[in-house]
């Protein structure tokens, strides 16, 4: 297992396009790092540079303390699981998992031991003699992961491994990968454009946009303290609402009435004509259902509801609002870039599932003003971000991770000695990138 350090990594393809543009990122030994961003932002390119399948135009790639820019993939001893994992149809599951060990001429009983251990963890024991064609999508996925596990690589690299699976299986595999990663304690870099996967799997998440890092932080920090409009709009589902606002005294005037800001916030946003206020759907509530204790921390406004959607555990209400053309154009561009269809001049509001608010009627909503963020509409910068609060959240996440890894390793089986410093095996059993 190893740490991965990237220093000012640039990738220019033949046509000169900088697909990855000055990326510096440190991934700790045993950490689960997510690379996320919309299509074309450079995620796969970055991953392929780590594994050695793509030349690095400039910058340093350092794995386990060693500069690997000029090493071939098989000399880096990393394990990659692709979007379209290739299993050999004529081989049994056992032989598919054993494949890299056969390549490196590992002795038979060692192969048997490692495949058995991996298949135990992956719950593939009773399928070892079957052929891939007879397996479900999720089982095939696990076979591909088994192959990565037996190699005892320095790190796992995943490129959208779940994107071909249906929603239910994707959920199961997500849990599976998370459990495995904790148990093996192996450094993992995982590419996805799915923000749910990013949020549930990552110790930290690196958000990319057009080849540049926007923010690297724990899921909670990204969610609660995004650096800009792009991160704020990308993370969270349904997405954050962005409303036009102007500052008057210590209050923001918005289409949903005034929102009071505290002193720090006022100082941060002063001097700009037009602002964008970001409000997550769950910062709203049906005003008639808000605790008396909470009520003073927010404001109440009246609005006509366009549509309501009842989902059992919660309920969404859509509230249209008016915005100046400058703002609508900006939001339209953002939605396009984030691959989301909706033109957001309607707010999505999450209210309690017992709320009687119904479409076509006016209703009173409460809005928690403590949590709103205010953005500069021109630059997209989050003007009210609290960097210290954000850093605390990421610190907490890193403490939690240490505890989870200890717990997972104390309770789970170990695979091929990987949970106790498996890197020792890398010399003897090198088998090239998967
Ligand atoms: N072989 C290539 N030659 C030239 N340009 C390329 C090549 N491969 C990728 N690119 C460009 O580099 C940019 C980043 O591509 P990359 O495949 O890394 O994106 P991605 O974030 O993985 O996207 P997706 O989510 O669609 O897989 C894109 O603009 C793409 O067009
Ligand atoms: Mg890709």
UniProtKB/TrEMBL annotation:
Specify whether Transmembrane helix is a keyword of the entry. Answer: no
Gene Ontology, cellular component aspect:
ATP-binding cassette (ABC) transporter complex, substrate-binding subunit-containing
Region described as Disordered: spans on this chain:
403-434
**Ranges of Gly residues composition bias in the record:** 414-425
Pfam families for the chain = ABC_tran, OB_MalK
Q: Where is the ABC transporter domain?
A: 4-235
InterPro entries assigned to the protein according to its UniProt record, in alphabetical order: AAA+_ATPase (IPR003593), ABC_transporter-like_ATP-bd (IPR003439), ABC_transporter-like_CS (IPR017871), ABC_transpr_MalK-like (IPR015855), ABC_transpr_MalK/UgpC-like (IPR047641), Mo/tungstate-bd_C_term_dom (IPR008995), OB_MalK-like (IPR040582), P-loop_NTPase (IPR027417)
Q: Name one GO molecular function term.
A: ATP hydrolysis activity
Listed name of the protein: Carbohydrate ABC transporter ATP-binding protein, CUT1 family
Task: Supply the source organism for this entry.
Answer: Geodermatophilus saharensis
């Amino acid at each position: 297992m190893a740490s991965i350090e990237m220093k000012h990594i640039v990738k220019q393809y033949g046509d000169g396009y900088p697909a990855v543009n000055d990326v510096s990122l440190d991934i700790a030994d045993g950490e689960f790092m997510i690379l996320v961003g919309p299509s074309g932002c450079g995620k796969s390119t970055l991953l392929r540079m780590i594994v050695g399948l793509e030349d690095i135009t400039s910058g340093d790639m350092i794995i386990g303390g060693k500069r690997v820019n000029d090493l071939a993939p098989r000399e880096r001893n990393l394990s990659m699981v692709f979007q379209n994992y290739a299993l050999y149809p004529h081989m049994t599951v056992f032989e598919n998992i054993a494949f890299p060990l056969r390549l490196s001429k590992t002795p038979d009983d060692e192969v048997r031991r490692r495949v058995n251990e991996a298949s135990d963890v992956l719950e593939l024991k009773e399928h070892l003699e079957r052929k891939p064609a007879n397996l479900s999508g999720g089982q095939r996925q696990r076979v591909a992961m088994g192959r990565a596990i037996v190699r005892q690589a320095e790190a796992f690299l995943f490129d959208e491994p779940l994107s071909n699976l249906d929603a239910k299986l994707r959920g199961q595999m997500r849990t599976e990968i998370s459990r495995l990663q904790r148990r093996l304690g192996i450094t993992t870099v995982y590419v996805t454009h799915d923000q749910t996967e990013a949020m549930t799997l990552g110790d930290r998440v690196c958000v990319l946009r057009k080849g540049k890092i926007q923010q690297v932080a724990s899921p909670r920090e990204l969610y609660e303290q995004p650096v800009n409009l792009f991160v704020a709009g990308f993370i969270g589902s349904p997405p954050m609402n962005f409303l036009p606002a102007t500052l008057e005294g210590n209050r923001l005037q918005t289409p949903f009435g005034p929102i009071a800001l505290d002193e720090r916030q006022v100082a941060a946003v002063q001097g700009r004509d037009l602002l964008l206020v970001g409000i997550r759907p769950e910062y709203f509530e049906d005003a008639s259902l808000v605790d008396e204790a909470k009520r003073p921390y927010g404001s109440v406004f009246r609005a006509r509801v366009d549509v309501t959607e009842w989902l059992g555990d919660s309920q969404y209400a859509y509230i249209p609002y008016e915005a100046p053309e400058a703002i609508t154009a900006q939001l339209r561009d953002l939605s396009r870039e984030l691959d989301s269809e909706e033109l957001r001049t309607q707010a999505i509001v999450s209210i309690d599932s017992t709320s009687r608010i119904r479409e076509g009627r006016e209703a009173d909503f409460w809005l928690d003003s403590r949590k709103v963020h205010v953005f500069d509409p021109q630059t997209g910068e989050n003007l009210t971000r609290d960097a210290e609060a954000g850093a605390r959240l990421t610190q907490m996440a890193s403490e939690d991770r240490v505890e989870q890894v200890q717990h997972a390793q104390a309770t789970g089986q170990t695979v091929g000695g990987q949970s106790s410093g498996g890197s020792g095996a890398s010399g003897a059993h090198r088998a090239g990138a998967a």
